[in-house]
């Protein structure tokens, strides 16, 4: 790290709270981005294989132009009439299935999930919420509790039902079996029963159909629909957290839940929606929205303001214009194939799971035992990639999964670069182990 | 309302949740803003005497330029190094008193207050929170509970201590008395004792030193300091919610709490900070920040990103360059004087309270009884103003307070326009009464 960066880091450590963390022991200091590339102060470029927030690519000119144009005109709130927020709500309603066409705009995925749970509790009269172990749904007091990775297990509230993620490689039902989906769904049923016994009932199940924080999973086909059936039978709602899995991320479908053949009761949208601008949404049915509005007030100052809505509309335009859903499908297939080929060649890659432009490589000390590599080793791999100009991440319940989640404008040539560098890093890589315990919630 | 607006309103009502409300029976459809002026689709202009979010004026070119420039370069997150977030943290630390120099950036006032309470609870080990009756601090599950206006009183959690606002015109201790501050502070003491009895303890008192939702109040000089002393004596923290009162709003000082001679333990900042852009912050001492980071993880995807930070820095620059603190003080004095003169001439104005560029006119059916006018009457006044080209609001515990809170670039000539129109509206205005109960939380 150069002297200027070292000085900046010093200043940072005295002006920002110690909660702030940096990726890599030798952090990158980015100053410019374009498409899938980001550049540091020395002009070094990095291929961004990690960031989903700049969904349509870094600094997309069409998005920046929409942002600047509307900010130069007017930025106010939804208590005055404005076209943009209505246009945006209609656009989202049109690409969501069923009756999911009634929107409330907020600023972050946290606000979206917090509101979605408030809605579910208000409408169902139940209090319990079901999530997977080591889920992450945000950082408010409420959804922080749903993010079981963020605080000690001893402090879990009793209204939280925590179930095993539907992992087909690890976990209680990982042995290939046609009843796997049913078995994992039965755990949701158990959690519902527990919440009923405690008098909470089940208000909602939150599901991220990319299972990002669980290590990026492909669930058994019938898992989500069976779980949804169980929770609905007990008067609860299905909240599909599309912050990770939505916006074409998984290829083939715009929304993650579509891969599992269900129509959720509530959908939450965040990160990719504004390609960096803080805009997010809760979309539900007219009936649920009406039942909530009867009992509760809700207003969000910045939510759906003309600038945020203009940006979100521009992102949808770019996705259409550049056919980014098709790109996520086709480039994603190339990427998946390439990663699988690498997995076949290296003992350290236990399995590759993912879809579209979201993949996880579950790294193991040996294939036979499937013992996860140490967090320190996973970080070493990510760090070696960083020094070869590739930004990737580490995720999963055991912090051993290499996470590949590039902007949607990732193309086959970028796949080639990533695979070459990954190959070079894994070639001869020896896990050293280590007890460098990952801090709570310290995803990177 | 013209046909196009009517069609837009129809589309709006089917695509946005019924939680959305519009100001005025005949809403305004704004399309452009500049300084203190906003314009509708027909080119009619309105003097904005309501909106504090566009703090440095609508569509300020310097802020728009900073937004566009940084968005065109890079928008990422705080896990990579970047100058902007550090510059911003240092700037805020430099203008806050005492050791308030350690920042966590978030996107909204809601997220800021939610995090501040999480910090207070984590650090103190207590659970109770004290707010004033009909306070408003945001809309997440947690801070929605602190916003006693948003839900039925029967659903109040028992960890919430709700005290009478320090109103010198209404309330239990409104008779002029040098012990008024002490008497109101004693209610905070009672609430602390109640929370102790319930086993919650007092983690924090949240105070908005403009008492916006209480009707815009000037508290007795010693109220805040006495209350702070009481809560600290019982191991709790003082959270100053500067979303309304900060950023020069009250004139003379940058922060509202400075009018009351205290240094809070935590400060939360929101709306005016980004002049429309969703950027907000929690600032606390290094000790409190460290104690929180030891026990809890916190990361906010959009919080403190290079674009948000660039915008927030530009807002601070404009405040300096255009000497907006001085303007809030001097134009504010002119405004306060003019409103007092009007109050003296009309029986319907019970009292005028406020400071700088934030004023409330407490409207009464008669001076002797101080009976608040009906909400319907307050809305009629705001609506008559709207038809005379003035945007103002209604607030207060009894929804009878006319709220004047213009952008900080409000100048004496604008004061003149406002006073002329207000005079014309109040001249001959007769309260009609009515039982048009205000919806929960339906501020306008």
Describe this structure in words.
The structure is a homodimer of 444-residue chains. By secondary structure, chain A is an alpha/beta fold. Chain A has two domains: 3-56 and 323-426, Alpha-Beta Complex (Aspartate Aminotransferase, domain 1); 61-321, Type I PLP-dependent aspartate aminotransferase-like (Major domain) (Aspartate Aminotransferase, domain 2, 3-Layer(aba) Sandwich). Chain A is 38% helix and 16% strand. Chain A is built from 13 helices and 15 strands. Chain A has helices spanning 3-15, 61-73, 83-95, 109-124, 141-146, 180-197, 223-233, 242-245, 286-295, 306-321, 324-345, 375-387, 412-426; strands at residues 30-34, 37-40, 45-48, 102-106, 128-132, 160-163, 202-207, 237-241, 266-269, 280-284, 349-355, 358-363, 390-391, 393-395, 401-404. In chain A, strands 4-10-9-8-7-5-6 form a seven-stranded mixed beta sheet, with helices on both faces. A four-stranded mixed beta sheet of chain A has the order 1-2-3-13. In chain A, a hairpin with a 4-residue loop joins strand 2 and strand 3 (45-48). In chain A, helix 2 packs antiparallel against helix 10 and helix 4 (109-124) packs across helix 9 (286-295). Chain A starts with a helix and ends in an 18-residue tail after the last helix. At the A-B interface, helix 1, strand 1, helix 2, helix 3 and strand 4 of A face helix 1, strand 1, helix 2, helix 3 and strand 4 of B.
């Amino acid at each position: 790290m150069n002297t200027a960066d070292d000085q900046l880091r010093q200043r940072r450590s005295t002006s920002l709270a110690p909660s702030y963390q940096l990726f890599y022991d030798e952090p990158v200091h980015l100053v410019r981005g374009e498409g899938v590339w980001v550049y540091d102060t020395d002009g070094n470029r990095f291929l961004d294989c990690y960031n989903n927030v700049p969904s349509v690519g870094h600094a997309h000119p069409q998005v920046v132009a929409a942002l600047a144009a509307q900010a130069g005109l007017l930025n106010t709130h939804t208590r005055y009439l404005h076209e943009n927020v209505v246009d945006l709500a209609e656009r989202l309603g049109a690409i969501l299935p069923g009756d999911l066409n009634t929107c409330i705009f907020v600023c972050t995925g946290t606000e979206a999930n917090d509101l979605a749970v408030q809605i579910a509790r208000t409408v169902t009269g139940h209090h319990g919420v079901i999530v997977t172990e080591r889920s992450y749904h945000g950082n408010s007091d409420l959804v922080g509790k749903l993010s079981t990775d963020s605080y000690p297990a001893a402090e879990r509230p009793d209204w939280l039902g925590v179930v095993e993620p539907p992992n087909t490689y690890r976990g209680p039902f990982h042995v290939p079996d046609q009843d796997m989906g049913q078995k994992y769904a039965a755990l949701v049923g158990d959690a519902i029963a527990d919440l009923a016994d405690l008098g909470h009932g089940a208000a909602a199940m939150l599901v991220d159909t990319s299972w990002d924080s669980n290590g990026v999973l492909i669930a058994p086909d019938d898992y989500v629909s069976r779980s949804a059936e169980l929770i609905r039978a007990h008067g609860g709602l299905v909240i599909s957290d599309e912050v990770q899995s939505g916006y074409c991320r998984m290829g083939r479908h715009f929304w993650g839940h579509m891969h599992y053949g269900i129509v959720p009761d509530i959908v939450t949208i965040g990160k990719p929606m504004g390609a960096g601008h803080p805009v997010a949404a809760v979309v539900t049915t007219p009936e649920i929205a009406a039942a909530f509005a009867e009992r509760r007030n809700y207003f969000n100052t910045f939510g759906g303001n003309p600038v945020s809505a203009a940006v979100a509309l521009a992102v949808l335009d770019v996705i259409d214009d550049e056919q980014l859903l098709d790109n996520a499908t086709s480039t994603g297939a190339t990427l998946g194939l390439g990663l699988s080929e690498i997995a076949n060649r290296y003992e350290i890659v236990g399995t590759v799971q993912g879809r579209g432009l979201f993949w996880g490589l579950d790294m193991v000390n040996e294939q036979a035992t499937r013992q996860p590599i140490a967090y320190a080793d996973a970080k070493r791999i990510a760090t070696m990639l960083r020094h070869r100009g590739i930004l990737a991440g580490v995720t999963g319940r055991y912090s051993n999964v290499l996470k590949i989640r590039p902007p949607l404008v990732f193309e086959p040539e970028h796949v080639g670069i990533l695979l070459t560098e990954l190959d070079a890093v894994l070639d001869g890589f020896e896990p050293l182990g280590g007890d460098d315990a990952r801090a709570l919630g310290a995803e990177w």
